[in-house]
């Protein structure tokens, strides 16, 4: 059955996919990805849904070569990708497909672009860049690259003191503790997240 192409329905599908992702609900993620692929979603939304499914199901290595090439083509061909929210979102969700050198190249472009005035960016841009930063730290952790670039933490430190950024600030502290091999603090943060409504997400954090 083809999903309705109304904007409201597309927004609902994307939100349900995000909710299923944070609950590590593999079955729901598979179903929702299939619906999104059959919908009138944008190319970036469809690629993002594929990436979310492979992330949750731990099948990132099974992403077809043509999908990987398409993601990289979108980034390489867009000279202004660091300003484009759709492209930034795609990069945020596709980090696991890049090599260490490629990932560092892209993250350096983001740092160069935003570090001097990140606190002056609009709310949605700040959330998107913060998501990229914590995802970058996550990918480095699972690849055992714990020599984090201090500029990532400096960028996250510029986030405004607002409840909407609390999650990113907590993750900033978690990865700082990982870098410092402070296992007690890591476990404390994981327990805090689990006790405050994010038990599945807490379990996915690298130790």
Q: Could you characterize the architecture of this molecule?
A:
By secondary structure, the chain is an all-alpha fold. Helix content is 68%, strand content 0%. It contains 11 helices and no strands. The chain is globular and about 45 Å long. The model is unreliable at 1-6 (pLDDT under 50).
Strand content: under 5%
H and E order: HHHHHHHHHHH
Number of extended strands = 0
Sheet of most strands:
none
Provide mean pLDDT, rounded. Answer: 88
Shape: globular
Low-confidence stretches: 1-6
- Approximately how much helix is present in the residues? 55-70%
Labels describing this entry:
about 210 residues, mainly alpha, disordered N terminus
Secondary-structure blueprint of this entry?
Elements lengths: L6 H16 L3 H12 L5 H14 L8 H12 L8 H10 L5 H15 L8 H20 L7 H8 L8 H14 L3 H13 L3 H6 L3
Concise account of the structure shown:
This protein has 207 residues and is mainly α. Helices cover 68% and strands 0% of the residues. The chain has helices at residues 7-22, 26-37, 43-56, 65-76, 85-94, 100-114, 123-142, 150-157, 166-179, 183-195, 199-204.
């Amino acid at each position: 059955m083809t999903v309705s192409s109304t904007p409201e329905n597309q927004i609902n599908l994307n939100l349900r996919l995000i909710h299923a992702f944070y609950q590590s609900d593999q079955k729901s993620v598979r179903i929702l990805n299939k619906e999104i692929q059959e919908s009138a979603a944008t190319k970036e939304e469809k690629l993002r849904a594929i990436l979310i499914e492979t992330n949750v199901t731990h099948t990132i290595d099974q992403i077809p070569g043509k999908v990987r090439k398409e993601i990289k083509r979108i980034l390489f061909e867009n000279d202004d990708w660091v300003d484009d929210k759709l492209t930034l979102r795609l990069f945020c969700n596709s980090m696991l497909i890049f090599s260490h050198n490629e990932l560092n190249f892209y993250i350096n472009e983001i740092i160069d672009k935003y570090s001097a005035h990140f606190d002056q960016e609009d709310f949605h841009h700040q959330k998107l860049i913060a998501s990229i930063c914590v995802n970058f730290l996550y990918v480095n952790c699972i690849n055992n690259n714990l020599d984090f670039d201090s500029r990532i933490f400096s960028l996250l430190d510029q986030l405004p003191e607002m409840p909407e950024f609390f999650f990113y600030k907590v993750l900033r502290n978690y990865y700082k503790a990982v870098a410092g091999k402070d296992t007690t603090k890591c476990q404390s943060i994981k327990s805090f997240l689990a006790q405050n409504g994010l038990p599945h997400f807490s379990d996915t954090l690298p130790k």
